[in-house]
What does this fold into?
Amino acid sequence: MKTYVATPANRERHWIVVDATGHTLGRLSTRIADALRGKRKPEYTPHCDTGDFVVVVNAEKIEVTGKKRQQKRYYRHSGYPGGLRERTFAEMQARRPEEIIRLAVKGMLPRNRLGRQQLRKLKIYAGPEHPHVAQQPKPMEIETR
It folds into this structure.
């Protein structure tokens, strides 16, 4: 019996749409990261990109538990001395809600070329509209608690 190895020639990619309304950030991000990597497919190969395209809508309606809305911080640095900036989760949700989900999923992907390639297949939109209707994305079933 030979070990199956997926190649770019025989992989099959689908488009998945996820509605983030009312979902917890971390729980939703793990499901999205698994779909981007292809871990839920039987032909999953760790060193090959076998994942699907994921479209996330309503990113502005994502939830967090506990006091994370005021205590969770997002940092960025300009590269200059004294250039460290920080924002809370509430500020990020008001200004750039797409970036919250993108950063959470990015932290769950490999830190190499393959991870960057997989992150490019993630499309996030703050509202309910998205321009990927022509790809006929299928909804992802995610249970809520």
Summary: Helices lie at 25-37, 68-71, 89-95, 97-106, 113-119. The chain has a mean pLDDT of 95. The chain has five helices and six strands. The first strand starts at residue 15 and ends at 19.
